[in-house]
Amino acid sequence: MKIDLDHIVLNVKDIKASIEFYTKIIGLESERYKEYLDGKAPFPSLRVNQATVIDLFPPERWLKNNSLSERFTNLNHYCLSLEQEQWLKLSERLKENNVLIHRGPTDNWGAKGIGISIFIYDIDGNEIEFRYYPNSD
User: Is residue 36 in a domain?
Assistant: First the structure.
C-alpha cells in the first residue's frame, strides 16, 4: 500500500512571524500567503516538496473557546494521502472497527490541490486526516 505524508497543520500565534521564520531562515516557499492576507484563503501554507506542505493555522482557526494562556499545542492534525481505492477500503475498515469518522467526507485543500478527506482521532486523541485526490490515481 502506498501512503504519502500530504501535510501537517501547525497552530501558530503569529502568521507573519511564522512565514518569515520558515521562508527567510528555513528556506521554504510560502503558498497562498497573499490570498490569506487578502481574505481569500483561510490560512497560508509552506511548500516542503512537491507532495507535502505545512499549513499555518492562525488563532481564529484553533483558539475557539480557549485563551492563549491555556495549554497551547502546535500540532493541529496531520494528513495521509492514499489512492482512492485504498481510501475507500480504509473507510470501510474504520466502520468495521467502530472508529468514528467525526468529519467528512469533505473537500479540502492540500499539497496537490483539492482532495476528499475524512477525519478521525487515534487512540491518543491525535487527529488524522485521510484523503485522496480525484483523478490522480
Answer: yes
